[in-house]
Amino acid sequence: MENPAFGKRLAEYCQRTVSRGSAVSPHTLGTACLGFDCCASPALLSLPVVGRLFRGKKHRPAGSPSSPGSLSIDLVFPSVLGSFNGALSTVPVHDLGSTVIREVLKRAAVAPEEVSEVIFGHVLAAGCGQNPVRQASVGAGIPYSVPAWSCQMICGSGLKAVCLAAQSIRIGDSSIVVAGGMENMSKAPHLVHLRTGVKIGETPLADSILCDGLTDAFHNYHMGITAENVAKQWQVSREDQDKVAVLSQNRTEHAQKAGHFDKEIVPVFVSSKKGLTEVKTDEFPRHGSNMEAVSKLKPCFLMDGTGTVTPANASGINDGAAAVVLMKKSEAGNRGLTPLAQIVSWAQAGVEPSIMGIGPIPAIKQAVAKAGWSLEDVDVFEINEAFAALSVAIAKELGLNPEKVNTEGGAIALGHPLGASGCRILVTLLHTLERKGGHRGVAALCIGGGMGIAMCVQRG
């Protein structure tokens, strides 16, 4: 599985682009991402920022359009990303969701009463009240008559919500759907089992972030161990992981300073003793990251001398939300909206849970095949950086050009709010394609429990 050509290409690219700034601190804080808006049609999804047309064939596999129409995503906007226990930590998750829903509807010029359905990914729901997505929908001014619900596919939840919205439009159940994801990991509670009481002794608390989000249910170990398994099986060195981590931070730093995220971000107003504070800048990125500082951090999952995964080459624990508006391409045309892109295909796949991080490999292959593309046809890949080890293994296995992957940085720099990340990377993909003049893009994520999800989009 070793790919010397890839390793050499990665090293050369990092040499050209990685800066040597100040030391980077461990990535233990999370970021929040907020909203997109898009439109889609019952047959093909046309995305305002990035999308792809479905190609009609007599036999259409799941995830391909069933009619010549196309689904559009008209606008996509993520919110600012907040660190774990940071600026967004006190904001209820449904308020994060409401913020992005209101903004995408406003930018898409869609009235709340015109929405057919709201579908959001959300993972850590304990203590959030009954149906948090319904709370977010009503809080955004959408009428009680409009249904709202959540889907749970761990890290893939936000992108799965977009797939479900596309399917709902395709079969005629809905005409305009708001889809996305939301998560406030800072507010995830600790749990204690006291339903029948405790007669004697101590009762341990369970961290819901770990037990419901970051621990493999089949092997009962942290996602970080699955990353170590991938690093070992795909022969990914600590140095290669650190190079990807620093490259991610440096790319995000450049993107922030160049204003590349400005169109994506929706500011969030947070109440404090001093009044309302506007949070409008991603908190998590570590500017000035460099190999010297990153290489000093110790492994945090395997500490027996064989570990390679550290806080710096893993994604963070974050808070945020993201949303898109989907509608038929014809509906977008009637409204005078220019779609950002079209959804061409999507796919999901399962793998052995102990190496869940390679889930995007079969998912990307299947989605690209359904689209009738080759990997070489793709201009930009957004593949969630849950861990750098996974990023290296996926790129090696698929033979991807590093200059096409996560060109604005990824979750190692921006953060990984579980339920929101799938939609966040789709938004970033769409805006990146638009800015670069690209036409074809792929968004993909690995999923705890041993799965992967991918979506192909196309502009123009």
UniProtKB/TrEMBL annotation:
The keyword Transferase applies. One of its GO terms (molecular function) is acyltransferase activity, transferring groups other than amino-acyl groups. InterPro entries: Thiolase (IPR002155), Thiolase-like (IPR016039), Thiolase_AS (IPR020610), Thiolase_C (IPR020617), Thiolase_CS (IPR020613), Thiolase_N (IPR020616). Residues 81-330 form the Thiolase N-terminal domain. Pathway: Lipid metabolism. The keyword Transmembrane helix does not apply. Residues 337-459 form the Thiolase C-terminal domain. Belongs to the thiolase-like superfamily. Thiolase family. PANTHER family: ACETYL-COA ACETYLTRANSFERASE, CYTOSOLIC, ACETYL-COA C-ACYLTRANSFERASE. This is Acetyl-CoA acetyltransferase, cytosolic. The lineage of its organism: Eukaryota, Metazoa, Chordata, Craniata, Vertebrata. The gene is ACAT2.
